[in-house]
Write a structure and sequence with these properties.
The chain is of the alpha/beta class and about 120 residues long. The chain has 2 helices and 8 strands, in the order E-H-E-E-E-E-H-E-E-E. The chain is about 20% helix and about 40% strand.
């Protein structure tokens, strides 16, 4: 359904450090480097960061939210730890979330530009 997503960033170097760590914990690597954009993925770029010079920080109430699938709860934990260690802000520590139909384990972070990024998995135990 969705082929790729992108987020705007005010500082490409800072955002690259953040996303290399956070996405790396989920197995996504930097695959494409261009002057104003970086593409991350497993086999092709499915997550892009794009330089937007002068971009204001995304307000939390703007609703920006991208959720990425993790294989395990350990990957969700690693994503959160990595993101916070490189300048992200926790917006929801790793843990089970109430949900009416499935067991849902997730963590939320704000990148240095205010984009809300989530990692999620659905444990079967």
């Amino acid at each position: 359904m969705i082929d790729h997503v992108s987020v705007g960033v005010a500082d490409l170097e800072r955002a690259t450090r953040f996303y290399e760590a956070a996405l790396g914990a989920l197995g996504l690597l930097r695959l494409v480097t261009r002057p104003a954009t970086i593409g991350f993925g497993k086999t092709y770029p499915e997550f892009w960061i794009n330089l937007r010079k002068g971009m204001a920080k995304v307000p939390h109430e703007a609703g920006t939210h991208i959720c990425l699938r993790a294989k395990t709860t350990a990957e969700v934990d690693a994503f959160h730890a990595a993101a916070v260690s490189v300048g992200g802000t926790s917006d929801g520590a790793p843990g089970l979330r109430p949900h009416d139909r499935v067991k849902y384990y997730a963590a939320f972070v704000l990148d240095p530009d205010g984009n809300r990024i989530e990692a999620v998995t659905f444990p079967q135990d």
